[in-house]
Every structure is written in C-alpha cells, then in structure tokens.
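Task: complex structure prediction.
Instruction: return structure tokens for all chains below.
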Amino acid sequence: MMAIEISQQFALLLEYGVDTQGKQLSLSALAAATDIRYQTLSNLLSGKATNPRLYTVRSLCQVYSISLDYFDLPTEESCIHWLKQQRLKQAVPLVQQIKAETDVLSPKGRYNVLAMLEWLKAAVQR
Amino acid sequence: MKIEIGVGIMETYLPVATQLNILFEAVLHVEERSYTLQEVSTATGISVGSLSQLRTGRIENPQLNTLRAICHFFKVPLRYFETKSEEECYALIANQEVTETNELNEIAFRATNLSEAAQQDVLTVIKWVQAAESQRKSGGGLPPLPRLEDYDDGN
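Output:
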C-alpha cells in the first residue's frame, strides 16, 4: 500500500472533515477560520508545499477537532477511516443511539439493516 | 471563530523545546543514559544543529517531517506535540494512553448524512431486525413490517 502524501491527507480532510458546527469548509473558509494564509493552504493542497510547520497543522487539527496523529497515518484508507470515526464521535444523539444499537447486532443483523436501508434509499429516489 | 496561529493560542501548548527536552530526559538508551544529539541525528536525519536549536527554543515552529522523525525515534505518537502539560508528556511516553481503533460502524456513519426523520426510521428498522432475530430464535415467524415516517406511502 502506498504511503500517503500530505497533499492527499489535506484533500481528504477537506472532503471528510467537519467543523464544530458539522459543516465542511472550503479553502477560503478555512483560511478565515484559522488565520493560515490562503496561499499556504492552496500550496498544501496542490502539493507545492510538502512539509508544513507545526502551528499550521495544529490549527488545522483544532478546526476539524482531530488529533495531530492524523498527520502520521500511513495510507489513504487509514485516513478515511480515521475521519469517518471522528465524524461519528461528533454526531447527534440520535446517531449515537443508532451506533449503540447496531454495535450489539449480530453481523447478519447488521447485514439485514443495511439491506433495508438500501431499500429505503431506493424508495426515496422513486 | 478565529483561531490565531500567532503566539497567542500556541501558548496553551507546551513549548516544543520543553516537549523535546522531556523526551531526551525520559526515553533512555539501553545503556540507561540519554541519547546524544549525534545519535538522534543519525537515526532521524535531522542535523545536530537543528536538534540543538529545537532544544533551546531557538526554533519554535518546526516542520512536520522533523516532528514525525522525532516521534518515531522516541516512540511517541505525533500528538505528543499537542501536549499542554508535562504530565501529558509522561503519560504518552509511558504509553498509558490508549487510542481506540475499532471497526467503523458503517450504518451509524451513513446515518450522519440523513435527515432526523430518516434517522428515526433507521432506528425503527434496527428494532425490527432485533425483534426478528429474537423471534426467529424462539421459533416464531417474522414480526410485522414497521411503519416508516419518511417513506410510508400508506400501503
């Protein structure tokens, strides 16, 4: 598995990360929220800057409520997993309840719930 | 809410120099002494000069790769450089903090993208599946299908 570049990690953060209000942030919103220069963020995303400074990554972690450990994850898969877990931790009580109930379901039970959810999704799209 | 990255907010964190000095003091060579700057330099690729400046605080805001190399060498997680007290540093060094790396609950994750009504429906579905599981175990048939708020068309 390929080691992940910081530009990719940052791209994933933009895609999956949410602020304390549960909202995704654009580069400009991020610049406004953190005082990191827009150009710095843009360079990070494009891969032009490959080795950001501590204060920059700390600020990013603060905005997205993630730990600095994120920037030491080795693969794209582990980054996505991490960010999804983070989203769950910040979720509303109803979702926390869903998590608690499904955690105790058997694998078959979970499979059945997922199948019914697919059915629901199709029903909405009709 | 603006988070200023000047000296202000970074003051809540321990200075990098303090964090690094604790690592040198607490993480020992097998010979039960501190590592020398040269040893750390050779292992991490960071110059002796840079390490020295980091320890004195002359460099306060190092780059990410430098921090990663230091953490890997001293065997602490990268969040070591987010510590706000010496106690936190020692806890991480002693490996006392455990991070959970459990399997992602896919159903709950997908639910984060749904409306509240839809989330209620998900819970209804789960309860139905739970009832179905226990009824099947006790030899009964399936429970009646649930009425769902968002999708029920009255059939």
